[in-house]
Amino acid sequence: MRWLTPERAPGFSVPGMTDRLLTSGELATRAGVTPDTLRYYERLGLLPPAPRTGGGYRLYDPAMAERLAFIGKAKALGLTLEEVQAVLRVASAGTPPCEHVRAALCRRLREVEARIAELEELRATLARALRRSRKLPVALSCVCEIIESQEVSRPNAARPKSAGRRRGGSTTNKKEVL
């Protein structure tokens, strides 16, 4: 993974390597993200600061496409951008990040399993409500007897904030997921 080695910062040239630096538009197209995503990732520290041309255009090492693919795959597994950033920090320090990734994936799995349990409870509640609703007369004096007759617990009230968070805290662009 060329993009993980510290000496492969944007603008660094390896003798015999014919890769040319890419503009943000070229890298974004190659990686399937938007240029806004590149700038956002750079602000978060997920991408190293790109050197600029005299005209102010960012130039990226083509290896950053591999780094963006890694970020996309990590996000697809449910890791937040903060967790991805931590993995990249561990890796750039020369330490294999697998234990860190394993711990993050275990946390994410527990969150998913808790959410599945909540959804199964909701499914059972909905099925009971529909079964009961078939026995109720149509009433004109209430909003809806089906809802009013329910003794529904509020599973979302006890739900931990992390279980419903948006990965990375950013708006996800479909093109952004690799």
> Approximately how much beta-strand content do the residues carry?
under 5%
Helix content: 40-55%
Radius of gyration: 24 Å
Sequence of secondary-structure elements = EHHEHHHH
What name does the CATH topology of the largest domain carry? Multidrug-efflux Transporter Regulator, Chain: A, Domain 2
| Name of the level-1 CATH class of the largest domain | Mainly Alpha
Structural class by secondary-structure content: mainly alpha
Q: Write down the domain tally.
A: 2
Could you give the count of β-strands? 2
Q: Could you say what the CATH architecture of the largest domain is?
A: Orthogonal Bundle
Topology readout:
Layout: E1 22-23, H1 24-31, H2 35-44, E2 59-60, H3 64-76, H4 81-92, H5 98-133, H6 145-148
Antiparallel strand pairs: 1-2
Helix pairs in contact: 1-3, 4-5
